[in-house]
Specification:
Length: 182
């Protein structure tokens, strides 16, 4: 059992225990799962995560958020070194069409293919298949309308690919009104 305040000799902090759990996790972890494992409240977990986020600002790690789930990732600035270290080629180069579809999904998720097609004015099947195959989007359900079209949303890999820790970090959308000059 973890102690909420302080530590005795030989024990490590709650933040260090959270960091250890995130290090061995294979993906995003709900805060409630961390709280249960450490036998503390989710408020204690949030405080520990704030401590870790502050510590990571000058290091090669970051916390990536997806709703109430969090995961340990490498800093975006380290991506070229990590790719070189792992011997990865940049296999996720995306076409203009795929980037358009990804932007639409990123800002309007969850969204269906017909809705994406309507916004773009062209068929988006190929771009959707490509984004699904590289893991940047996923099926998250079906719309409760006739035909029950598939709903798409971005994945934690999307955040990682673009160096974001949460969707709220996406840049503000520029509207047509913003670009019209009189």
């Amino acid at each position: 059992m973890a102690k909420e305040n302080g530590q005795s000799a030989g024990e490590i902090s709650i933040a260090a225990l959270v960091e250890s759990a995130l290090f061995v996790a294979s993906g995003p972890v709900p805060l409630s799962r961390l709280a249960k494992a450490l036998e503390v409240s989710t408020a204690v977990i949030r405080n520990a995560l704030k401590t870790l986020e502050a510590d990571y600002q000058t290091r090669g790690l970051r916390l990536q958020w997806s709703g109430n789930e969090v995961q340990l990732t490498t800093a975006p600035a380290a991506s070229q070194v990590i790719e070189r270290f792992l011997g990865l080629e940049m296999t996720t180069r995306l076409s203009q069409a795929a980037l358009e579809v990804l932007a639409i999904i990123g800002y309007m998720q969850p969204i269906t293919r017909p809705q994406v097609d309507q916004i773009r004015g062209v068929n988006s099947d190929g771009a959707l298949r490509r984004l699904l195959s590289v893991g940047l989007i996923e099926e998250v359900g079906r719309m409760e309308t006739p035909g029950r079209p598939i709903l798409y949303a971005t994945t934690p890999e999307f955040l990682q690919h673009f160096g974001l820790t949460m969707l709220e970090e996406l840049p503000e959308l520029e509207t047509e009104e913003d670009t019209i000059t009189l």
